[in-house]
C-alpha cells in the first residue's frame, strides 16, 4: 500500500477581513489535474472509449519523495492519492465490506489506483467474470494477493502457475472425475452418521467446529487414508492464523519466505508447525487413492508432494465446512425451507441413509446448498493479475493491473438476483435465464475448483444424512457475523442446539 501521509495547509488572516475558516486542503490535491470527464458522471460511464479521452492524475508521496503519478482511468473510482489510500486502509481492515461499499458507490466496475501507476479493478458483472476466467484466461495469473499463501502452499494446485500447475492438475484431476468420486459416497455418509450419533440430544454445540471436524475427517479418510478428525480443533486454530497472515501479508512488501512472515507475525509459527506435522503424518501413512497416485506418479518431488497434500487438505475441508455452517444457520432462520427439506429427505430416503445415486432425487436439498453458497460463497473473491493490456467487456485493463471478480458481489447483483439478500432456494429449481457467470461459487475456466464435484456430493450427502435424524437451531438471540479472509466463514463459534427429529 502506498505510504501517503496527509498534510494540512492554512492561510494567514490579513487586514480586517472577517475571520473565515479556510477549507483544509491536501496540498497535492490542489495541484491535481482533474479528469476531463467527471469520474462519477453517467456520461463518463457511457462514453464510447472513455479511457482514450483522459488519463487521471494523482500526486502522492512514494518512497520518500513527492511524485506525479498518472493513471489511465477507464472506469469510475476513487482518485489517486489520499482518497485511494483511505479506501486501501478500509480494505486492509474489512475487505468484503469495502468491496461492497466500492460497488455501491461507483458501480459494477471500479478502478482503485495503488502503488506506482498500477490499478486494482473490482468487476462484478457476469461478462467480466467470463472474460477474465474463461474467454481470455491465458492473459491472467493468480494475483499478488495469493503471494503470502504461496509461501506456505508453494507449488500446490491453488498457488502454482505455468508448467508446474499443468503437471499437478493433470495428476490430480482424474481422482476427482465423477465416476471416481461416487466411490467416496459411503465414506462420506459413514463419517457423518458417526459424528451425528455422538451429538448429545438437546445440547448446544459449536456447529462450525463440528462441521470442520467432519469435513476434515472425510477428506482425510477418502483422499489420504488418514484419520484426522482428532486434529480438527488445532487445525482450525492453525488455519485461522494462516488466513489472518495471508490477509496481513498481502499488504506487506517483499513477502517471499516463511522467515519474513514469522518475523512480523511470530504467533503464526505454532500453527504452521502443526500443519506441517499433519502433512508429514499423512505423507508417511499408507495412503488413500489420491496419495498413492501422487506418490506413484514419480512426477512430484518430495516438496511438491507435501505442497499438494497441504493444499488439498486445506482447500478440501475448510470451504465445505464453511458452506455447511452457513447452510444450517440459514435453515434455522427459514423454518419453511427446512420443513420442505426434511419432507424431501423423508420421502426419498424412507428412513435409510443416502447413497450417491439419491443425490439426483434430492433437488430441494441441492437447491438449499446452492442458495447458501450464493449468499455466503466460501471463496468470496477471485483475483488475478493481467499479463498484457486487455479490454474486459468495455473496461480497459493495463498490463500489471490486479482484478477481483468476487462471487460475493456477483451473487448479490440485483440485476440477476431479484431480492438479492433473501434466502430463496427455489431460484435453483429448474431452468434459469441467468447468465452462466452470474453464479460462480467454484470459479471458472481452467482454474475452476478441482474438487467441485466432490464438494457438492459431500455437502448433499451430509445435509441429507444429518437432516434425516437431527435438527440444528441457532441459540436464541444469536447473530452470526462473517469473517472474510481467504475464505468467508462464520467469525467465531456458532452455538446451535442439536435435537433429534
Ligand atoms: C464448497 C466447497 C468449495 C468451494 C466453494 C470451493 C471453491 C473454489 C474456488 C472458487 C476455486 C478457484 C479459485 C481461483 O480461481 O482462484 C477453487 C480452487 C480449488 N479448489 Fe475448491 N472449493 C471447494 C471445495 C474443494 C474441495 C472439496 C477440494 C479438494 C478436495 C478443493 C480443492 C481445490 C483446489 C486444489 C483448487 C485449485 C485448482 C486449480 O487452480 O487448479 N476445493 N475452489
From TrEMBL:
<dbReference type="Pfam" id="PF00067">
    <property type="entry name" value="p450"/>
</dbReference>
<feature type="compositionally biased region" description="Basic residues">
    <location>
        <begin position="18"/>
        <end position="28"/>
    </location>
</feature>
<feature type="binding site" description="axial binding residue">
    <location>
        <position position="449"/>
    </location>
    <ligand>
        <name>heme</name>
    </ligand>
</feature>
<dbReference type="GO" id="GO:0020037">
    <property type="term" value="F:heme binding"/>
</dbReference>
<comment type="similarity">
    <text>Belongs to the cytochrome P450 family.</text>
</comment>
<protein>
    <submittedName>
        <fullName>Cytochrome P450</fullName>
    </submittedName>
</protein>
<feature type="region of interest" description="Disordered">
    <location>
        <begin position="1"/>
        <end position="31"/>
    </location>
</feature>
<dbReference type="InterPro" id="IPR002401">
    <property type="entry name" value="Cyt_P450_E_grp-I"/>
</dbReference>
<keyword id="KW-0560">Oxidoreductase</keyword>
<keyword id="KW-0503">Monooxygenase</keyword>
<dbReference type="InterPro" id="IPR036396">
    <property type="entry name" value="Cyt_P450_sf"/>
</dbReference>
<keyword id="KW-0408">Iron</keyword>
<dbReference type="GO" id="GO:0004497">
    <property type="term" value="F:monooxygenase activity"/>
</dbReference>
<dbReference type="InterPro" id="IPR050196">
    <property type="entry name" value="Cytochrome_P450_Monoox"/>
</dbReference>
<keyword id="KW-0479">Metal-binding</keyword>
<dbReference type="GO" id="GO:0005506">
    <property type="term" value="F:iron ion binding"/>
</dbReference>
<dbReference type="GO" id="GO:0016705">
    <property type="term" value="F:oxidoreductase activity, acting on paired donors, with incorporation or reduction of molecular oxygen"/>
</dbReference>
<keyword id="KW-0349">Heme</keyword>
<dbReference type="InterPro" id="IPR017972">
    <property type="entry name" value="Cyt_P450_CS"/>
</dbReference>
<dbReference type="InterPro" id="IPR001128">
    <property type="entry name" value="Cyt_P450"/>
</dbReference>
Amino acid at each position: 500500500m502506498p505510504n501517503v501521509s496527509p498534510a494540512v495547509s492554512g492561510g494567514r488572516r490579513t487586514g480586517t477581513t472577517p475571520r473565515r475558516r479556510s477549507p483544509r486542503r491536501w496540498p497535492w490535491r490542489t495541484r491535481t489535474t482533474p479528469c476531463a470527464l467527471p469520474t462519477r458522471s453517467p456520461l463518463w460511464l457511457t462514453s464510447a472509449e472513455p479511457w482514450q479521452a483522459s488519463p487521471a492524475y494523482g500526486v502522492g508521496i512514494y518512497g520518500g519523495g513527492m511524485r506525479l503519478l498518472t493513471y489511465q482511468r477507464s472506469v469510475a473510482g476513487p482518485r489517486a492519492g489520499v482518497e485511494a489510500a483511505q479506501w486501501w486502509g478500509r480494505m486492509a481492515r474489512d475487505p468484503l465490506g469495502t468491496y461492497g461499499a466500492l460497488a455501491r458507490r461507483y458501480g459494477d466496475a471500479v478502478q482503485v489506483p495503488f502503488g506506482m501507476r498500477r490499478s486494482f479493478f473490482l468487476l462484478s458483472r457476469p461478462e467480466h467474470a467470463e472474460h477474465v476466467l474463461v474467454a481470455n484466461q491465458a492473459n491472467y495469473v493468480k494475483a499478488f494477493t495469493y503471494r503470502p499463501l504461496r509461501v506456505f502452499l508453494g507449488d500446490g494446485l491453488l498457488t502454482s502457475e505455468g508448467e508446474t500447475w499443468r503437471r499437478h492438475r493433470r495428476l490430480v484431476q482424474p481422482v476427482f472425475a465423477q465416476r471416481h468420486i461416487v466411490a467416496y459416497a459411503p465414506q462420506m455418509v459413514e463419517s457423518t452418521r458417526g459424528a451425528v450419533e455422538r451429538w448429545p440430544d438437546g445440547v448446544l454445540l459449536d456447529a462450525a467446529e463440528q462441521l470442520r471436524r467432519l469435513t476434515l475427517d472425510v477428506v482425510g479418510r477418502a483422499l489420504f487414508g488418514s484419520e484426522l478428525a482428532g486434529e480438527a480443533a488445532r487445525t482450525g486454530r492453525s488455519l485461522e492464523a494462516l488466513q489472518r497472515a495471508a490477509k496481513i501479508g498481502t499488504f506487506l512488501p517483499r513477502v517471499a519466505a516463511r522467515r519474513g512472515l514469522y518475523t512480523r507475525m511470530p504467533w503464526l509459527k505454532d500453527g504452521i508447525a502443526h500443519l506441517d506435522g499433519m502433512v508429514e503424518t499423512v505423507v508417511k501413512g499408507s495412503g488413500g487413492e489420491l496419495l498413492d497416485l501422487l506418490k506413484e506418479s514419480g512426477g512430484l518431488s518430495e516438496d511438491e508432494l507435501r505442497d499438494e497434500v497441504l493444499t488439498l487438505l486445506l482447500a478440501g475441508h475448510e470451504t465445505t465446512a464453511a458452506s455447511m455452517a452457513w447452510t444450517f444457520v440459514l435453515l434455522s432462520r427459514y423454518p419453511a425451507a427446512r420443513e420442505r427439506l426434511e419432507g424431501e429427505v423423508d420421502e426419498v430416503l424412507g428412513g435409510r441413509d443416502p447413497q450417491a445415486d439419491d443425490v439426483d432425487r434430492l433437488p430441494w436439498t441441492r437447491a438449499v446448498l446452492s442458495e447458501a453458497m450464493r449468499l455466503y460463497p466460501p471463496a468470496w473473491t477471485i483475483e488475478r493479475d493481467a499479463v498484457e493490456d486487455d479490454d474486459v467487456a468495455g473496461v480497459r485493463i493495463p498490463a500489471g493491473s490486479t482484478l477481483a471478480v468476487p462471487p460475493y458481489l456477483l451473487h448479490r447483483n440485483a440485476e440477476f438476483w431479484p431480492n438479492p439478500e433473501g434466502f430463496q432456494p427455489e431460484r435453483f429449481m429448474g431452468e434459469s435465464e441467468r447468465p452462466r457467470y452470474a453464479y460462480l461459487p467454484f470459479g471458472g475456466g481452467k482454474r475452476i475448483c478441482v474438487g467441485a464435484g466432490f464438494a457438492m456430493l459431500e455437502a448433499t450427502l451430509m445435509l441429507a444424512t444429518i437432516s434425516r435424524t437431527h435438527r440444528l437451531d441457532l441459540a436464541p438471540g444469536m447473530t452470526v457475523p462473517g469473517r472474510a479472509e481467504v475464505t468467508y466463514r462464520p467469525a467465531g463459534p456458532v452455538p446451535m442446539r442439536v435435537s433429534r427429529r
